[in-house]
């Protein structure tokens, strides 16, 4: 049996959300959290699809949607295990990473989830997809030149420095300033297969926080 984590001690990161947050993300109170600005659009678009699969909990459905999004955009295959229960009460604000802070903050937030330095850097590579919108986060722009493709370009762009039209958040730059994080950034920039393997492992670990199932 996989050990059952304390569901009240974990949060998510707004993109790779653990199952407590997944089941709550459709509720106004959770969507109102600052780190979740804009997720109401995704929730609205996914709702007609969810209606076709009532057997799935919302927590499982949103997790599966994330796994599929990574795979169809060129990323690694990530195992999916159903069984997440839906929760009704969102966790308190402040458990999600703050994009304006540095490495100590990242370790504090993700460390409480049982994630390692390697996990933190690998999951940061998820920024290869999508971008920021100023009206939602205060930041504007994508991290890479092709934000619809999942690859290791986030790390390459991070190492190459700031460029017009692309964004690097303070939390991204913190990866370069940290003596443990930076070698991992360099490794993933040079070896996409290594990034894919570590991302899939970290994503699975994050996605299964808070629920147990038989192996």
UniProtKB/TrEMBL annotation:
Recorded protein name is: L-ascorbate peroxidase
Top-level lineage group? Eukaryota
- Domain named Plant heme peroxidase family profile: residues: 55-215
**GO terms of molecular function:** heme binding; L-ascorbate peroxidase activity; metal ion binding
Any one GO CC term of this protein is: chloroplast
Is the keyword Cell membrane in the record?
no
Give the keywords, sorted: Iron, Metal-binding, Oxidoreductase, Peroxidase
Name any one Pfam family assigned in the record.
Answer: peroxidase
Which parts of the chain are coiled coil?
A: none
Q: Is Oxidoreductase there in the keyword field?
A: yes
Amino acid composition bias (Basic and acidic residues), ranges on this chain:
83-92
Enzyme nomenclature, EC number? 1.11.1.11
Which metal ions or organic cofactors does this protein require, according to UniProt?
heme b
Name a biological process GO annotation. Answer: cellular response to oxidative stress
